[in-house]
Amino acid sequence: MAQQPIVQLRNLTKVIRGKKLIDSLNLDLYPGQITGFLGPNGAGKTTTIRMMTGLMHPTEGEVLIEGQSLQGHYEEAISKVGVIVENPEMYKYMSGYKNLLHFARMHRQVSKERIDEVVRQVGLEKRIHEKVSTYSLGMRQRLGLAQALLHRPKFLILDEPTNGLDPAGIREFRTYLRKIAAEEGVSVFVSSHLLSEIELMCDRIAIIQNGQLIDIREMHNEAETVYYVEAEPLAKVQEVAQQLQIEYIVQAKGLELQIPKEQVPQLVNELVAQQVNIFAIQPQQKTLEEQFLEMTGGGQIAESHTK
Ligand SMILES: Nc1ncnc2c1ncn2[C@@H]1O[C@H](COP(=O)(O)OP(=O)(O)OP(=O)(O)O)[C@@H](O)[C@H]1O
Ligand SMILES: [Mg+2]
Fold this sequence. Notes:
This protein is of the alpha/beta class. The protein folds into 2 domains: about 210 residues, P-loop containing nucleotide triphosphate hydrolases (Rossmann fold, 3-Layer(aba) Sandwich); about 60 residues, 2-Layer Sandwich (Alpha-Beta Plaits). The chain is built from 10 helices and 14 strands. The protein has a 6-stranded mixed beta sheet with strand order 6-7-8-3-9-10, sandwiched between helices. A 4-stranded antiparallel beta sheet has the order 2-1-4-5. Helix 4 crosses helix 5 and helix 5 packs parallel to helix 6. The C terminus is likely disordered. The site of magnesium ion has 2 residues, from helix 1. Adenosine-5'-triphosphate binds next to helix 1.
């Protein structure tokens, strides 16, 4: 990506009582992008996030926010960060709006217009003047999101934000996060131990295991898409694939072809020219789980492990 990263982890390391909990993490986070931080229980997500929010000092390495060290220039660097911790603290007997007003006073330059704007962004307009005690868990999470956004952070960190939400709540939260990343150009970093959730929410995924980053990958990587082609006669399709030097696997009624999207029209033209009857051409996205299993040779990401 050509843009400058907003956040950079450089050799971030944490040792506690001789144990290396976090081992030289290097990671760049970009504006408008949602990066998932995926790893099993105890992998080191929260420890990393604590260092990224200045709650814990790294043993080695540093966190840079727009090029400025969080450790060296704490005040200025942290003013660009929005954080949602588990169960954001809210005054339950006050309305959502009063809560936001209260938090707005902690920052300089948060206008009433800005409060209205974040309320709209998280879809709480209708209920914002009701007491927080009447809110569902999902609404409280969204209020937490609104609060974290008040001061227009360039970088938003969320540690397991969907814990306890039902599938509809997760979907809703995801929609608002995506909207915020797109509308405000915020770089979002969201941790989870749930593969399926991260897969749907993120543009990019960093996988951590035993304190080490074992992979960083882009989601929806069309370059490696596999297309399933259902057509007759299959022998002709195989001939065409060979001609075009496309790798394929034969299935019952069709072929799985490994081609970039740009090559699909050429393939279709050739099949039509060869008088092949085409019934379907479908992209087959590999799920993250399949990719992960491939990568680790059968290891499970979601299971807990002991060191
Ligand atoms: N203050 C501490 N002292 C000693 N060990 C710690 C401390 N904090 C965390 N750890 C250890 O560091 C490792 C990583 O913990 P961490 O909480 O960062 O994992 P996590 O990826 O957030 O897990 P989860 O998915 O369960 O939230 C664990 O083995 C944990 O026991
Ligand atoms: Mg954690």
